[in-house]
Amino acid sequence: MLNGPNLGLLGTREPGVYGSKPLEQIVCDLKEKGRQLGVCIEAFQSDIEGELVSKIGESAGRIDGIIMNPAAFTHTSIALRDALQAVDVPCVEVHLSNTHAREEFRKENMTAAACVGQVMGFGATSYMLALDGLVNHISGGK
Ligand code: DQA
After folding, report:
1. Which terminal Cβ of the chain has fewer Cβ within 10 Å, N or C?
2. Distance, CA 86 to ligand 1 centroid (Å)?
3. Which CATH number does the domain housing residue 77 bear?
4. Atom of ligand 1 nearest to the CA of 120
């Protein structure tokens, strides 16, 4: 599970848009769901694009799948898109908010085309739905 810039501020960051659950709680809930599904989840948050790029690079051969909320980098980062395309690791992109229902610049998306799917608009539940989708994808489901 990878989370991009400012997501470490969840809980107090624009709760009307992103909800009031801190990232630690979302991570905890996702790990619990992972345990129920029999998968082990590692979580990493960074405000630094290159650190996320490196994590994706390190995932090859070590991680079965990625759930990533690239946050603002979604709209700008060719480096994250290239990293996802460079490794043979399926990624589901997550957003708490529905980015299509917000400012015009959030409709621009650099990363989703390098992902197997996308879940957005359901707050913290987006991560849970993404995990279901990713596990189903890895197990060969459509
Ligand atoms: C976000 C949406 C992005 O546009 C924004 O920059 C974020 C959070 C979301 O989860 O809704 O930081 O990725």
Report:
1. C
2. 24
3. 3.40.50.9100
4. 11
Q: At residue 123, does pLDDT exceed 90?
A: yes
Range(s) of the domain holding residue 58:
2-138
Catalytic residues: 18, 95
Residue of minimum CA distance from atom 6 in ligand 1: 72
Q: What is the tally of structural domains in the chain?
A: 1
Q: Do 7 and 45 touch, CB atoms closer than 8 A? A: yes
How sure is the predictor about 2, in pLDDT bands with cuts at 50, 70 and 90? very high
Which residue's alpha carbon is nearest to atom 8 within ligand 1? 71
Please tell me the pTM assigned to this model.
Answer: 0.97
**Distance from the CA of 42 to the center of ligand 1, in angstroms?**
21
Backbone φ/ψ region at 38: left (φ over 0), alpha (ψ -120 to 50), beta: left
pLDDT, tens digit (0-9, with 9 covering 90-100), for 54-113: 999 999 999 999 999 999 999 999 999 999 999 999 999 999 999 999 999 999 999 999
Q: Are 76 and 49 in contact (CB under 8 A)?
A: no
- How sure is the predictor about 141, in pLDDT bands with cuts at 50, 70 and 90? confident
